[in-house]
Design goal:
This protein is an alpha/beta fold. The chain contains 17 helices and 16 strands.
Length: 535
């Protein structure tokens, strides 16, 4: 299960708990295969410890540890089994769940222990002294069996506020029994950074024990609380990929690690690993089947996106003027957004991103800027529709539309049947290369049906369209803009099997808006395929 471990430096730990605490997020349901895949991604990223779950308590986690031992050779991480201290009144060597931790064959164990007197008495239904004995016995037992032990002090910060002397006695007991690190947990997520710093500093001064931090994000401060604990002397941080976790989540692994490496100058990952961060973030999101957050710090697709013209003008001079780091340091890229806020610099930079240099043609830049502002006034948006913007740009540069067909009519009809089922059928009639073509197709919605009918018609003339497919579409109703009737905006994503592109259409109904978006989608696809457009 574990190849010879080559730690960066045991003086600081990056501990990932995505497979246990992260899996408690609503909407996440990981199979054993999912957990194995995520573990490989996290090991590739270079975290020091991966908490795999609770063997003995959760059958799926027991199976994960069994398979991980055979299927994964960890290059950087060590696998950690999570569990609880022995039960009150039970000998530790008679406790089945403690035995399951050993049976998992994980070299590391992370024990959860109560550190809040009220929780000891109400949840465990035992005495404060017995709770300390449970911690002492379990840690010492695991140490004699050759396991390295971390102890998570559940509800520590709330317990410290209620009874700091008892909370600190839990820390000292765990350490004296052999725990390598005692982790202070903000289990309810209610702490703020200044108080986290005060408490961690006080506990470190009073006990001299090596401390870690586990922060939930209920106040939106989990990352800040984690870094505040590091500032106060904590040398072990527990996080989850993309901040997944119960309720609103945990401290997000990626901004914590990026801050430690780029802001603190502390090396916590293998060389070059930080540049894989965006890829790893999106890969984990793919496994858990959640759309990556576009606005997530460092790794979100919008993390280095610039929209305002003032920003773009400055970035044209020096990108660092409006970026706190070079996005390539974390495997991300800078993006220029084209909108009605765009100035000349935004247009020039976006065109350059698309492979066209407009720096010497102020008149062309002005025409493009005017068209963008006029179109967005009508409801268009080019921020998520790069292909539509590139068509607009190329048409202005060419001085005429770049079109491959002319629509004569289109329609989509929903037929409701007596048996309760229904079918959506679209018919398009268009003219291309002097030929009139009519095609009909069914789909699971009006956009899908129109796409299929359009493809049937065009594939007769343009074989290059073979393999094109509709990947996704989004419909949005824009209520009464500038005193006009409501309009519909449709964003379409299309692919040729290698590259995906997005286009936009706006009209007073979904069929018209869909047609405009699809018109752009196929025009752009043919342009990419090297087919000459009709003037």
């Amino acid at each position: 299960m574990n190849a010879p471990h080559r730690p960066l430096d045991d003086s600081f730990h990056v501990f990932d708990t995505t497979l246990r605490d992260g899996a408690q997020r609503e909407g996440i349901n990981l199979s054993v295969a999912d957990k194995l895949t995520i573990a490989r991604h996290l090991d590739d990223f270079g975290v020091g410890f991966i908490e795999g779950g609770w063997p003995g308590a959760v059958p799926r986690d027991t199976e994960f540890f069994r398979r991980a031992a055979k299927e994964i050779d960890f290059r950087h991480a060590r696998l950690v089994a999570f569990g609880a201290t022995r039960k009150a009144g039970l000998r530790v060597d008679d406790d089945a769940q403690v035995a399951a931790l050993l049976e998992s064959e994980a070299p590391m164990v992370c024990l959860v222990a109560k550190s809040h007197g009220r929780h000891v008495e109400l949840a465990l239904r035992t005495t404060l002294d017995e709770n300390l004995a449970m911690i002492r016995d379990t840690v010492a037992f695991l140490r004699t069996r050759g396991r390295r032990v971390f102890v998570d002090c559940e509800h520590f910060f709330d317990g410290f506020e209620a009874d700091p002397e008892y909370a600190e006695s839990v820390v000292v007991t765990a350490s004296e029994a052999g725990a390598d690190v005692v982790v202070l947990c903000d289990t309810n997520g209610g702490m703020l950074p200044s108080r986290v710093h005060e408490v961690v500093a006080a506990v470190l001064a009073d006990t001299g024990v090596r401390l870690g931090i586990h922060a939930q994000d209920d106040t939106g401060c989990a990352v800040a609380n984690t870094l505040a604990a590091v500032d106060a002397g904590a040398t072990h941080v527990q996080c989850t990929a993309n901040g997944y976790g119960e309720r609103v989540g945990n401290a997000n692994l990626f901004p914590v690690v990026a801050a430690l490496e780029l802001k603190y100058g502390r090396r916590v990952l293998p060389p070059g690993a930080l540049r894989e961060m965006t890829r790893i973030s999106h890969a984990v999101a793919e496994v858990v089947n959640l759309t990556p957050s576009t606005h997530q710090p460092y790794v979100g697709v919008s993390a280095f996106a610039h929209k305002a013209g003032l920003h773009a003008s400055a970035i044209k001079v020096d990108p660092d003027l409006y970026q706190h780091i070079d996005p390539e340091q974390v495997g991300n890229t800078m993006r220029m957004l084209v909108s009605d806020m765009a100035g000349r610099a935004s247009i020039e930079l976006k065109a350059k991103e698309l492979g066209t240099d407009l720096s010497g043609d102020r008149e062309l830049v002005g025409r493009v800027m005017t068209r963008v502002k006029e179109a967005e006034l009508c409801g268009y948006t080019y921020e998520a529709a790069d292909a539509s913007f590139e068509l607009l740009l190329r048409e202005e540069a060419a001085g005429h539309p770049l079109r491959y067909f002319r629509a004569e009519s289109w329609r989509a009809v929903t037929e409701y049947r007596p048996d309760g089922t229904h079918a959506i059928e679209a018919t398009v009639q268009l003219r291309t290369k002097g030929e009139r073509i009519t095609a009909t197709a069914e789909g699971n919605g009006p956009v899908h049906a129109l796409d299929r009918a359009l493809r049937v018609a065009l594939e007769r003339i343009y074989p290059a369209l073979a393999g094109f497919e509709l990947v996704d579409y989004k419909v949005r109703i824009l209520e009464g803009r500038h005193g006009t009737e409501s309009t519909t905006r449709v964003l379409v994503s299309t692919s040729d099997g290698r590259v995906e592109w997005s286009t936009v259409g706006v009209a007073d109904n979904i069929i018209g808006a869909s047609w405009q978006a699809l018109d752009d989608a196929y025009a752009y696809g043919l342009l990419r395929a090297g087919v000459s457009a009709q003037a």
